[in-house]
Design goal:
By secondary structure, this protein is an alpha+beta fold. The radius of gyration is 15 Å and the shape is globular. The protein has one domain: Transcriptional regulator MraZ domain (Chemotaxis protein chec), CATH 3.40.1550.20. A hairpin with a 5-residue loop joins strand 3 and strand 4. The chain contains five helices and eight strands.
Length: about 140
């Protein structure tokens, strides 16, 4: 399980560190993909395989399912940690998430999200403002 919020800088080569406790959970391989909310999602390989299994059953379904598969799998990259515990954030994912210099690494249960620090401030405020309403809604 991943939890917590950590602030880092992206270096000139597009690398960002992940917290040591996250690295231990992720082992050697991390799968990066477009998150649903303008962020990069990072999965340990075992969790990525669960996502893949869930989505693959919908691959031949309606157009919307195929588009989800294209978006998620087409943007996925398998990366490894370097000796300093950094992963390369591919340019296409950095552009999508608008990550420039500051990156916030957020644990969200079974995966990790990487956010541009300014976009994270906006998302965190919106989430904080809405969390009690979401919890109390009948759909929650």
């Amino acid at each position: 399980m991943f939890f917590g919020e950590y602030n880092y800088k992206v270096d000139e080569k597009g690398r960002a560190p992940l917290p040591p406790k996250f690295r231990r959970e992720m082992k050697d391989i991390v799968v990066l993909s477009r998150g649903l909310d303008k962020c990069i999602s990072a999965y340990p390989l075992a969790e990525w395989n669960k996502v893949a299994e869930s989505l693959s059953s919908k691959a031949m379904g309606p157009t919307s399912s195929r588009r989800i598969n294209r978006s998620i799998f087409g943007s996925a990259f398998s990366v490894s940690f370097d000796k300093q515990g950094r992963v390369i954030l591919p340019p296409t994912l950095r552009d999508y998430a608008e990550i420039k210099e500051g990156v916030v690494v957020v644990g969200v249960n079974n995966c990790v999200e990487l956010w541009d620090s300014e976009l994270w401030k906006v998302e965190k405020k919106e989430s904080d403002d809405q969390v009690s309403q979401i919890v109390e809604s009948p759909e929650a």
